[in-house]
Amino acid sequence: MAIIEVRDLRKVYGGRAVVDGVSFAVEEGEIFGVLGPNGAGKTTAVECVEGLRVPDSGLVRVAGLDPVADHREVTQLLGAQLQESELQAKLTVREALELYSAFYEKPVDWRPLAERLGLGEKLDSRFGKLSGGQKQRLFIALALIGGPRVVVLDELTTGLDPRARRDTWQLIEEVRASGVTVLLVTHFMEEAQRLCDRIAVIDRGRLAALDTPAGLIGRSASSTVISFTPSRPLDPRELAELPAATSVTTDERDGRVTVNGTDDTVNAVISLLARQHVTAHQLRVVDATLDDAFLHLTGATT
Ligand SMILES: Nc1ncnc2c1ncn2[C@@H]1O[C@H](COP(=O)(O)OP(=O)(O)OP(=O)(O)O)[C@@H](O)[C@H]1O
């Protein structure tokens, strides 16, 4: 059953629709990603779901409730990640957890929650002294403290080092495993590909695509990439004419050739090399990534 429903959502600022007719539904228990270039309207759309912004038109429902008209009820079942500026630097982790517990009718016991999120040793530390990763873990704890059915995480791992980002991914997976639906706004393709069951790609206020990560990659014109360094130069035009080849590039420094296409292209490249008695050094064949699909869908870079 859909726990979040967004239908034909529109939000206008200064005469410009920054969210322009977006529709999607999030099923209970999913990690649902919202991905898009800067300024695409992701935060605006997600904040309409949280009841923090009022839509100009369209319908938003969370567990059947209207986030604006039924704001109180919705805040009891939807946990939102805070922005850093919303917590005072002098507040200790324990004080923050106690304070936020008081906001909810049926808060969970924050002690095991803090332990689970690796904050047990940090209860007396002040917020301002925590590392980026520890702050993010505290934000996840505060988002979960009301025992929500849905959590909204917006750019949660921005600014974290790769290790802390991976730890946060594991936490997000654990949150979902505990039965909470996750709405995740992200810029990171790897994050979306690894975590999300489905992804809504938003571009210039509109829904450009909605699919599983594998489904989005499959839409990209080139699903496979072959690269190699030939034992002698090849004619790029000949490569470009191979079946389903979508692009051919040759690195000027080392002569390395990269051909985007499909599995048919890979087979054709290998036959061509054999026919011409060319040896391919360091031959690599990889699947296209969500990055390729994203560029294909939005024509933008993140
Ligand atoms: N309160 C506001 N008043 C006027 N314009 C706004 C307001 N909030 C957002 N916008 C504009 O709406 C557009 C979408 O902004 P939004 O923050 O939703 O995008 P986003 O996809 O979340 O971007 P980013 O990835 O950069 O955070 C931007 O052009 C932004 O300047």
UniProtKB/TrEMBL annotation:
CDD domains: ABC_DR_subfamily_A. Its main location: membrane. Pfam families: ABC_tran. It is found in: Cell membrane. The keyword ATP-binding applies. Keywords: Antibiotic resistance, ATP-binding, Nucleotide-binding, Transport. The keyword Protease does not apply. It is a peripheral membrane protein. Residues 4-229 form the ABC transporter domain. It comes from the Bacteria. GO terms for molecular function: ATP binding. Gene3D superfamilies: P-loop containing nucleotide triphosphate hydrolases. This is ABC transporter ATP-binding protein. It comes from Streptomyces luteolus.
